[in-house]
């Protein structure tokens, strides 16, 4: 067993309102430069829909991710080492600007410089940022089918619908819809890193963040096509690859990523997960695609297991990181409550951004049909009967196996019903909890984490320097010295934030080992 | 031997070597971020799909041919039983074939560079120098081969008696410019243009040639790397 640490993210899709604040703040922070106009490290897709770039999930077209050979070995779907090098002069699997979209701006200046007595109303025409020509009709964007806009034409091309052989209703009243925010998955078995001929991409040993070394990148573009999530982009100005950095400069001082920090729905969770690096190859090469979800869960290690802790210490994982892993909301949502699922495990990259599937399509449909959307009996039977949302979610999260999705949705539904009783002043109904293999106490814990978790519960991020707990680096130049008493007196993790009475987590570095 | 001859066949070769090697080292040490192939595949894909591989594979073959013709003395090929006639035939047929492929690729690349506006706008000043340099050198080399080897005197022009010996005399620090005086003009121009291209080489995107990622073949797929010590070792205040 070789224990390694990874910073992982979970998004609770029920809470996503599709406001794109994460995308916009991310863009302001990272990709508001020339050459990166079309690059969205974070984007929010409406599902069902094509996504960005158009139809990225269709690996028959894009050849991203890994392919399992007959002998059980993994080879990048776009080709092994020699085959990749042979394609270096023109990469046939590279999306071009038509697959993303032609970035554009408007001639705002024309509005100001129009002559006073102009006979015509001044207009700001759209101009392409690629060839500087006017675009009379903008035909696609990063987010064109937002809220199912225009989906009558494009919906049939959704790769998940195609693969699962689903025929969804196209009239808005009968269709279901939810939002899927996406960032880089910071995979345990990343194809982009494996496809980089220069060795410029790497996975950081300390926290598992996948990065591009801008000095070593030579612009061969194999990472862009290798990534099945199409989350590595080509900066056409610098000629180098760029991707989501999981805001590592923020994480290193204990702050959450920009997308998490600014999420108005507070649907993102960040934390440390421990995994067995020796079994990554095993987990990624399961023969049956539907076993990949379980296999990936198997290599995530229980941070409370003394053997795991001993191995982690032997592998130089700092004590503060082990503690963070034990308090990790990620571990709880994936393994304790079993409500979080990976995005497209069938790509075999072992993604580390997981999702709590949305119950809302089911609740909405139940409520619309005049039934009680919070009655567990109604909800539980509706989950089983409403095959289209269930199959669709299974196509996204479990390579088509509906059982894990159904379990997650049933637990969310049970939580809804159980907590209604509690809030109505009644005793919580243990039979509801029991029906989904939980007990009332666990359901209430899960409710706390999913619904009212505070900043420090959602983001459990140890800092790079264990002697500098989060919050402290912001206090540089503070007149109060770092003396022990003064230090004990403050609650560094929550300084200046959320001054409510939530129980404070003990500050990690002062713990006596 | 006249002054221009010495300038062209002694001074210029050493100057181009100094600029090529020195410039490469300087740029490698100071401009890692600018060291890239600057692909324009994102802007335009359909034309690049066939023209870029044709150009690159063609020019690689041409480079290999130059290495054989210039670096290997004809006594050596004679010793292994390759007659001058056979060598001439092989070099001309293979060389002309590679030149044709390279030229078709180059035409495709030039066409998209000039006609496709998004690619044109992505062209830097040094890219223009690169394209002009490459086009001139390749066209002159092809002209020299066609004029002297295909339509020239029977048996062609044996550059291995003159150009190759001069070429090898440069790195041996025993330059023999007199060998170049009677070389056909097309060859002379081709060589001068090539040396001028070498002079600007390190300052263009052509640097990507020496970054051919051959180490990828033997590397494990996933690369792990520790957090940059340069960042981690920033002075930190005492923690207590």
Notes on the protein architecture:
The complex is a heterodimer of chains A (513) and B (240). With 513 residues, chain A is α+β, with helices and mostly antiparallel strands. Chain A has helices at 21-30, 59-62, 81-86, 108-113, 151-154, 159-163, 191-195, 222-226, 248-251, 258-262, 280-284, 292-299, 306-314, 319-326, 329-336, 360-368, 376-385, 387-397, 402-423, 430-435, 440-452, 455-458, 484-489; strands spanning 3-12, 43-47, 66-68, 74-76, 104-106, 126-128, 134-135, 178-182, 201-204, 210-212, 232-235, 240-243, 268-276, 300-301, 341-342, 353-356. Helix content of chain A is 34%, strand content 13%. In chain A, strands 14-13-1-16-15 form a five-stranded mixed beta sheet, sandwiched between helices. A three-stranded antiparallel beta sheet of chain A has the order 5-6-7, with no helix packed on it. Chain A starts with a strand and ends in a 24-residue tail after the last helix. Residues 484-502 and 506-513 of chain A have low confidence and may be disordered. Chain B is built from nine helices and one strand. Chain B is globular, with a radius of gyration of 22 Å. Chain B starts with a helix and ends in an 8-residue tail after the last helix. Classes of the chains: A alpha+beta (513), B mainly alpha (240). Chains A and B meet through helix 3 and strand 9 of A and helix 2, helix 5 and strand 1 of B. Strand 9 of chain A pairs parallel with strand 1 of chain B, so a sheet runs across the interface.
Brief write-up:
Chain A is α+β, with helices and mostly antiparallel strands and 513 residues long. In chain A, 34% of the residues lie in helices and 13% in strands. Chain B: Heme b 2 binds at residue 66.
